[in-house]
């Protein structure tokens, strides 16, 4: 398959050294992208270059290495601003990932601005990272957590959300794309309806970032969190976007170096945004390398990403749905390139191990969405999640392997 720029999937795959190996004597087929995507050579090179040439602490040094490291670090902040179309670069806060971004908002915004009797709304398909921080906040403040139900096909209904909205709703935090089901939620409508009652909104974009263009000004969300390792970048780095006026109203999440302006034993004056939320020495090297991941995604373009991943999704449906005992979990009309499933009479862990023996990496378990699994009355699923470097041929091999495994189990 060719793209408008002349790049082919085969050429894209050449940029990922990890893909060119055997696992258990078989060519690696990596279908665990919703957990962590692989990194292209450009990201690896950027990481190595930093440690070989620029390694120094940032913002506080005047020597050459410190200035180079600071420039590279802030260049990534500028790239992230453009990637999600934030109005100002100061609205970009670096975190270690989506989980930390959500926790930051829950504590720095929630503990100051949410009170007893206030209401927080999430969906029934949230990752634990978008459940537990709000439960903790409710325990701390006396606020109430409310949950939008999930239909049997893995969708939420706007009328169910509207029924939960009241004059007490202060915050809404929803996943853009479900990591377990691939469901794409109607976040623009959710944001608009939440704002109509005066609530602030956070969007968990961990799964959306590698699949779907993000425009925080168009969305008009108050916060958005994403992780680098979901979108071909390093682990341990993420972005929290917040509108300037909201970030400025919040107290710091942690204390330490960088987040201060002046310190005395009588009191402390905090730094400006975004630095007041970036206490201590950050994960400089991985932030610097994250810029290369942003450039990789932008260089391919979301048009091709979406087209190719939908081709993989449709091929997966075509090849997998007819396998004896195959049960898809999550059949939303609008979904990303994720297929979660069970096979009658076969435990997901067994399937995962047998597939691994054939060099095929899938995720098994509850995918950090135990309440969602409870909703479907299951312990977990097998999840195959596809990325831009996966191929139709890999889907076919996967389907053949699964068919063979099921036949052997049926004997």
UniProtKB/TrEMBL annotation:
<keyword id="KW-0456">Lyase</keyword>
<dbReference type="InterPro" id="IPR020578">
    <property type="entry name" value="Aminotrans_V_PyrdxlP_BS"/>
</dbReference>
<dbReference type="GO" id="GO:0031071">
    <property type="term" value="F:cysteine desulfurase activity"/>
</dbReference>
<dbReference type="GO" id="GO:0016829">
    <property type="term" value="F:lyase activity"/>
</dbReference>
<comment type="similarity">
    <text>Belongs to the class-V pyridoxal-phosphate-dependent aminotransferase family. Csd subfamily.</text>
</comment>
<keyword id="KW-0663">Pyridoxal phosphate</keyword>
<dbReference type="InterPro" id="IPR015424">
    <property type="entry name" value="PyrdxlP-dep_Trfase"/>
</dbReference>
<comment type="function">
    <text>Catalyzes the removal of elemental sulfur and selenium atoms from L-cysteine, L-cystine, L-selenocysteine, and L-selenocystine to produce L-alanine.</text>
</comment>
<dbReference type="InterPro" id="IPR010970">
    <property type="entry name" value="Cys_dSase_SufS"/>
</dbReference>
<dbReference type="GO" id="GO:0006534">
    <property type="term" value="P:cysteine metabolic process"/>
</dbReference>
<keyword id="KW-0808">Transferase</keyword>
<dbReference type="InterPro" id="IPR000192">
    <property type="entry name" value="Aminotrans_V_dom"/>
</dbReference>
<feature type="domain" description="Aminotransferase class V">
    <location>
        <begin position="29"/>
        <end position="398"/>
    </location>
</feature>
<dbReference type="InterPro" id="IPR015421">
    <property type="entry name" value="PyrdxlP-dep_Trfase_major"/>
</dbReference>
<dbReference type="InterPro" id="IPR016454">
    <property type="entry name" value="Cysteine_dSase"/>
</dbReference>
<protein>
    <recommendedName>
        <fullName>Cysteine desulfurase</fullName>
        <ecNumber>2.8.1.7</ecNumber>
    </recommendedName>
</protein>
<dbReference type="InterPro" id="IPR015422">
    <property type="entry name" value="PyrdxlP-dep_Trfase_small"/>
</dbReference>
<dbReference type="Pfam" id="PF00266">
    <property type="entry name" value="Aminotran_5"/>
</dbReference>
<dbReference type="GO" id="GO:0030170">
    <property type="term" value="F:pyridoxal phosphate binding"/>
</dbReference>
């Amino acid at each position: 398959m060719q793209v408008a720029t002349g790049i082919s999937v085969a050429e894209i795959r050449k940029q990922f050294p990890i893909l060119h190996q055997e696992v258990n004597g078989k060519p690696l087929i990596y279908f665990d992208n919703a957990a962590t995507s692989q990194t292209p050579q450009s990201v690896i090179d950027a990481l190595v270059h930093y440690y070989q040439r620029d390694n120094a602490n940032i913002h506080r040094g005047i020597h050459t290495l410190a200035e180079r490291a600071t420039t590279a670090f802030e260049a990534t902040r500028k790239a992230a601003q453009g990637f999600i179309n934030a109005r100002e670069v100061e609205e970009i806060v670096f975190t270690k990932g989506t989980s930390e971004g959500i926790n930051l908002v829950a504590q720095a915004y929630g503990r100051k601005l949410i009170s007893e009797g206030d209401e927080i709304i999430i969906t029934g398909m949230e990752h634990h990272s978008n459940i537990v921080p709000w439960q903790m906040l409710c325990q701390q403040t006396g606020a109430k957590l409310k949950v939008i139900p999930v239909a049997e096909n893995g969708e939420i209904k706007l009328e169910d959300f509207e029924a939960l909205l009241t004059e007490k709703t202060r915050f809404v935090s929803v996943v853009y794309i479900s990591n377990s089901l691939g469901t794409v939620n109607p976040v623009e409508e959710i944001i608009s309806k939440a704002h109509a009652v005066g609530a602030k909104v956070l969007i968990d974009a961990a799964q959306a970032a590698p699949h779907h263009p993000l425009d925080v000004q168009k969305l008009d969300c108050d916060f958005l969190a994403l992780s680098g390792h979901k979108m071909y970048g390093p682990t341990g780095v993420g972005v929290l976007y917040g509108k300037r006026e909201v970030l400025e109203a919040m107290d710091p999440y942690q204390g330490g170096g960088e987040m201060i302006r002046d310190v005395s034993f009588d009191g402390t004056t905090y730094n400006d945004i975004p630095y007041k939320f970036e206490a201590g020495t950050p994960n400089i090297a991985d932030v610097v390398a994250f810029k290369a991941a942003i450039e990789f995604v932008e260089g391919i373009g979301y048009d091709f990403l979406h087209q190719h991943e939908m081709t993989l999704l449709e091929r997966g449906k075509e090849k997998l749905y007819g396998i004896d005992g195959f049960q898809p979990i999550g059949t939303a009309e609008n979904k990303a390139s994720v297929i979660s499933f069970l096979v009658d009479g076969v435990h997901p862990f067994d399937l995962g191990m047998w597939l691994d023996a054939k060099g095929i990496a899938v995720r098994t378990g509850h995918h950090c969405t135990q309440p969602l699994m409870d909703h479907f009355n299951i312990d977990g699923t097998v999840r195959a999640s596809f990325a831009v470097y996966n191929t139709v041929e890999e889907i076919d091999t996967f389907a053949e392997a699964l068919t063979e495994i099921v036949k052997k189990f049926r004997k």
